[in-house]
Structure formats: C-alpha cells, structure tokens
Design a protein that fits this description.
The chain is built from no helices and 30 strands. It is mostly beta strands. A four-stranded antiparallel β-sheet has the order 1-30-29-28, with no helix packed on it. A hairpin with a 4-residue loop joins strand 8 and strand 9. 47% of the residues are buried.
C-alpha cells in the first residue's frame, strides 16, 4: 500500500463570520452541494448558516436571508434525509432542544420545538441526534439526562423514551429499522431494538475505566460495522456487531484526540476521521488487509489532509461521494477525495 500523501489540490475553503463547530450536507436532489454550518460562540445567541457550493466553478455562495439565530451552539445539524424533492426542505438542530426549521427561498422559520421532558418546560441538553433515512418521521436524540428519545416529527410527539445508560448519553446512530446504538459517559456502546425496549446489548466497553465514549457512527451502507471514539483518545475503534465486546480493529494514527468520524456512503468501505492533530485521515476499513499487533489489527490511512487548526467536525457527503466537509476555526473546508 502506498504511503499516504498530503494533498493540496481539491481543497476548497469558505471563511465564516464566527468559529464553526457543526456541519451537515443537504441530501435533496436539487440541493446536493448545499451545506449548513453551526457556530460555536460562548454566548446564548449562536448562528446556523446555509452555504451553497458550486461543483463546476468551485465557488461558495451565501444568502444573508438564509442565516438564523440558534440558542446556544448547535451540537448537531441534519437536513431532511431524502433525495426526493417532493419532501419538505427542512433542517433539524440540537442543543437545549431538538428543533425543526423550514427552509424557504428567502427565509428560514422555526417549524417545531420538541421538548421530551413532560414534567417541566425545561429540557436536559440534547448532545446529538440521528434522523432516520429509512423512516423520515423518526428522529432519535441523546441527552445528558441518560435517556434516548425517539420522536415522531409528523405528530411532534415522543414515540419512545428509554433510560439508555447509567450516565450522560453523548451520541446516537440508527443502524436500521427499529435499531439504534448509543454511547455514554459510562464507557459503553449499547444497541437497542425498539421491539424489545426492556433490554439492550452492550457491543463494546471502553477498556479505560471511568472514561466516556463520545462518538458512535453506525455504517449505514454495511450495518455489520460501527465506529466509536473515547474521550481524549487518538483511537477509532471499529466493532463488528456479529462479534461483540472485542474490537475488529483500532485505528491509531492520529496524534491528538479524535473529534469526528464519518463513514463513506453507499459502499461503506471507507471511514474519515478528524481531530485535534489538525488532520483528516481516510481509512479503507471494510475488506482491507491489515496486520495484527498483540491481537489487534493495525492499519495505515489511505490518505490524509492537513488543516491549519484542530478539526471540530467532519462529514462525508451522502450524495456527492467524493467530497468530505471539515470545519475548524472559522473555516468550512471541502476536500475532494
């Protein structure tokens, strides 16, 4: 395998007006290269902005009418997960609540604010969410109050709420119809099946005691595999759900904490990771040849990109398969892979 090289061609940068933490790609057929970026400001008032990238001219365009205020920094952003243009043009955000916003040509308006706490007008912080592409009514959220909530966004009502972990739940990812995974401050990856809500399966536990797992990403194109990352860890752990508790491999070539993981769409063979070492690495995970050291698979990345600062987030485009978005400082960078 040839050694990875840093590539500068095929890197396109948009400079925002504020520090950027979150990023999402549009899925709609008529808006395939549109993105959303969310600010990271310590104030109550934060921003979400829509940015259009032109694949032919490599230019970015924005419209100041397509920027909206967001209470607190959004922890995650997702557009309506369907290519069908007959669906409403919407974006969801998480922070103090799960919110759904309707996108119009000249403005964006709040459609619904979803509060899962029945006993109070206040809600525990939503750490992340995943919008199911196989059933676009369903959004799964994770919260610091140890719960995961499945929303029916058409009814604007809770479908299911589970006490999922012993500590805060930091991330959540659908693996298929009725099935999702979550990670927590208790250091476990748990898989839930909504047809049997009383039980969950622990797929992996962080071997470092008392250390949270912060990210989980189920491979939507090949649901045998999921990736997870621990707090302050430079490792990405790949788990084959058919062989729980023992990692399939650990990807250990980051030189700082990993902040983001994103599987390639459709084929699901590759994974992008990004972190505090200012690098985005691309790994050929599924079907790859790797060597074992002390019983754990060791792998080199296929390629890597260097940025100017710690990378906060990375997202592989779900429809433009050779594009990855990363965000750092006040920059959105698109990488052609």
């Amino acid at each position: 395998m040839q050694s990875p090289t840093e590539r500068k061609t095929g890197v396109y940068t948009y400079i925002g007006q504020w520090p950027i933490y979150s990023v999402a790609w549009s899925v709609r057929n008529d808006k395939r290269s549109r993105l959303a970026i969310g600010s990271f400001l310590e104030d109550y008032s934060n921003k979400v902005e829509l940015v259009q990238f032109n694949l032919h001219t490599s230019d970015f365009t924005t419209d100041n009418r397509l920027v909206f205020d967001h209470p607190y920094a959004p922890t995650n952003l997702m557009f309506f997960p369907s290519e069908d243009t007959s669906n409403p043009d919407m974006i969801a955000t998480s922070g103090d609540y799960l919110r759904l916003w309707e996108i119009h040509d000249d403005h964006i308006e709040l459609k619904s604010l979803l509060n899962g706490n029945k006993s109070s007008e206040f809600n525990s912080a939503i750490t992340s969410f995943d919008w199911a592409d196989f059933d676009t009514r369903r959004v799964a959220t994770s919260s610091v109050d140890t719960t995961c909530t499945i929303w029916d966004i058409e009814r604007e009502a809770v479908d299911t709420q589970l006490v999922a972990h012993d500590k805060e739940v930091f991330d959540i990812s659908w693996g298929g119809f009725n099935v999702f995974a979550s990670v927590s401050g208790d250091g476990s990856v748990r898989v839930f099946d909504l047809r049997d809500k009383e039980r969950s399966t622990i797929i992996y536990e962080n071997p470092i005691p008392e250390t949270p797992l912060l990210r989980v990403e189920w491979n939507k194109a090949d649901p045998r595999f999921m990736a997870t990352v621990g707090m302050d860890s430079n490792k990405i752990v790949i788990v084959d759900i058919r062989f729980p508790t023992t990692p399939l491999m650990e990807l250990c070539r980051h030189k700082g904490s990993v902040n983001a993981i994103s599987w390639a769409p459709l084929m699901g063979k590759q994974l992008c990771s990004a972190g505090d070492d200012s690098r985005a690495l691309i790994w050929e995970v599924v079907g790859s040849n790797y060597r074992a050291e002390n019983g754990v698979a060791v792998m080199e990345p296929e390629m890597w990109y260097g940025s100017a600062a710690e990378i906060n987030h990375a997202r592989w485009s779900p429809v433009e398969l050779d594009w990855i978005a990363i965000v750092f400082l006040n920059k959105l960078q698109l990488l052609k892979v």
